[in-house]
Each structure stands twice: as structure tokens, then as C-alpha cells.
Write a structure and sequence with these properties.
Strand order of the largest sheet: 2-1-6-5-4-3
Helix content: 10-25%
Structural class: alpha+beta
Number of strands: 6
Order of helices and strands: HHEEHEEEE
Shape: globular
Number of helices: 3
């Protein structure tokens, strides 16, 4: 039986960004399907499944990320939504210096029991 999500796909992505900016990897991975796939902005390999996705976010949150969406495009279907856009992360390096990382993203969301979860997330640094 189809259950319509209570929040829309755009709100889901803004919620993801808000949770990432709070730096708790467990809260972040709970936004992914159990078999979700992540091609992270700073990752050298594809992460599949929450156990692997958390490995990425355990490292990413050490940089104290704070993100802002700069553009967003949404295609919504009954049980799937595709969101493309750009965001900029403010990151803190080991010397406590602030760096900005502009990146582009694609999220594929899946409606799981009335909640949008991330099935696939690809993020890559913006080319110069």
C-alpha cells in the first residue's frame, strides 16, 4: 500500500544538510536506506550499506561541516524522487582554518513506509 511521505523531497534534503551540520554520523546514516549507496565528495571508493556509509561520515564530521544549498532541482514520482543541485560546505582543517568546498550532488530518494530515505547519493567537488 502506498503511503505518501509527510515531508517533500526538498525538505528531506534540507533536513539531511541540517543533520550533517550537527556532526552525528548515526543520525546521518539513519537517513539512508539500509542498502544505500554513497559516492562521497571526499571519498576514494563507493560506500554501500549503512555500515560503509557511516565510515565516510565518521571522517567527514571531524571537519565540522556546515553546508548551504546553492541550487536545487527536483523530479518527484510516486515512490522515487531525484534531486540534483549544488551546495557549499564550510570545513575546518587540522590547523583550525576554514575552507570552503563547493560541490554538486545527486540524491535518489525512495519512499519507505511514508518516509523519504536516501537510496543513492553522489557528491563531487565543483570543477574550477
Amino acid at each position: 500500500m502506498y503511503k505518501k511521505p509527510t515531508i517533500n523531497p526538498e525538505q528531506t534534503i534540507h533536513n539531511w544538510l541540517n543533520i550533517v551540520s550537527k556532526h552525528n554520523p548515526i543520525d546521518i546514516i539513519n537517513l539512508y536506506t539500509t542498502d544505500g549507496v554513497l559516492l562521497g565528495t571526499l571519498a576514494n571508493e563507493i560506500k554501500k550499506g549503512r555500515e560503509k556509509v557511516i565510515e565516510y561520515f565518521n571522517e567527514f564530521v571531524k571537519k565540522k561541516p556546515y553546508g548551504e544549498i546553492t541550487s536545487i532541482f527536483i523530479q518527484e514520482y510516486e515512490n522515487i524522487a531525484i534531486i540534483d543541485g549544488t551546495y557549499t560546505f564550510r570545513l575546518i582543517n587540522n590547523e583550525n582554518e576554514i575552507n570552503f568546498l563547493p560541490a554538486r550532488f545527486t540524491f535518489v530518494l525512495k519512499n519507505v513506509n511514508g518516509k523519504w530515505l536516501i537510496a543513492t547519493h553522489h557528491s563531487s567537488e565543483q570543477p574550477n
